[in-house]
Amino acid sequence: xxxxxxxxxxxxxxxxxxxxxxxxxxxxxxxxxxxxxxxxxxxxxxxxxxxxxxxxxxxxxxxxxxxxxxxxxxxxxxxxxxxxxxxxxxxxxxxxxxxxxxxxxxxxxxxxxxxxxxxxxxxxxxxxxxxxxxxxxxxxxxxxxxxxxxxxxxxxxxxxxxxxxxx
Length: 167
Fold this sequence. Notes:
Largest sheet: 6 strands, antiparallel
Radius of gyration: 18 Å
Shape: globular
Order of helices and strands: EEEEEEEEEEEEE
Strand content: over 45%
Structural class: mainly beta
Strand order of the largest sheet: 6-7-8-4-11-12
Helix content: under 10%
Number of helices: 0
Number of strands: 13
């Protein structure tokens, strides 16, 4: 810059990695994602069973994706993006404003991910969830969940990559 004016710039390094090799990362924002199979017990009550090596979803099962966020301070204009595995389809496909646990947000479902847009994310712990239907049997990468301030990308976190096996 040969002039007397101050010039500002930024550089970001972006690369691709095999999804299940990605390790969780956090700073003032932290998140964790879990999968649960929704089943009915003998009395007809809805029960959530955590997906693990003992309990694997089958084709046709309803999965509940639960994302826990911890914000160490107040944030504005935050996007939470959760990538989906190939063998599942979203149940709620319409985009809409929602209100839950004192938070107002806009939920958008697209081809490979579900995103939540928040104007304000106050300090605290929050839970976001949505449902998926298991459409195909197989062994699929789940992708990662990412939370990030849209205008201050240095404040963000992401979950670790996983694989989900369906019968």
